[in-house]
Amino acid sequence: MESKATEGDTAPDVASQSIRAEFTHGLSEVALPVNDLRTAIDFYTKVVGLVLELQSDDGAFLWTGLTGQSQRLILATRQYLARGNAAGEVGRGVEWHHVHYAFQVPREKLEKAIKHLHRSGVAVSGPARFDLMKATSFYFRDPDGHLVEFWSPDPGVQSA
Question: Residue 91's CB: how many other CB atoms inside 10 A?
């Protein structure tokens, strides 16, 4: 049985609610392929403001919110990912492409965040308005070409 969301459809169906309650408790990590690990670490710590957790020759883990309490961003060299070390046989030889993802930024901090990106020499596009989600976003690219978004819900809007 296939369930498709339509515009204006905001509540997940009963099956997905029970699966989420049973198995998933949030996003643990997102892995990004990078060409130069040091450049990527510098960008995500000095420009985006993430906190470095662990680092090896092939990758790094960074906290995306409160240290130890939220999701992580993994920066992994393309060579490491191509060897399949990250996902075993499933990931071996897979071509990793550009990724799009968003960081949630409280509205009262959004202007300061965008000014920081500009001061850091990052080209920013936006604002983009999403009435359906009641949010405003700005977009920029990291040094490897991934599309990063600062997503900001309207004040008073509950977000995930």
Answer: 17
**pLDDT tens readout for residues 26-80:** 677 888 999 999 999 999 999 999 999 999 999 999 999 887 776 888 898 888 7
Paired with 63 in beta bridges are 51, 72
d(CA 91, CA 84): 5
Instruction: For each of the domains in the chain, give its residue range(s) and CATH number, in order of start.
Output: 26-97 (3.10.180.10), 98-160 (3.10.180.10)
The answer to whether the Cα torsion of 114, 104, 140, 39 is positive or negative is positive
Single out the residue of 131, 152, 149, 153 nearest to residue 141, CA to CA.
Answer: 149
> 112 φ, ψ to 5°?
-65, -40
pTM of the model: 0.76
Q: Are 90 and 84 in contact (CB under 8 A)?
A: yes
CA 133/CA 38 separation, integer angstroms: 35
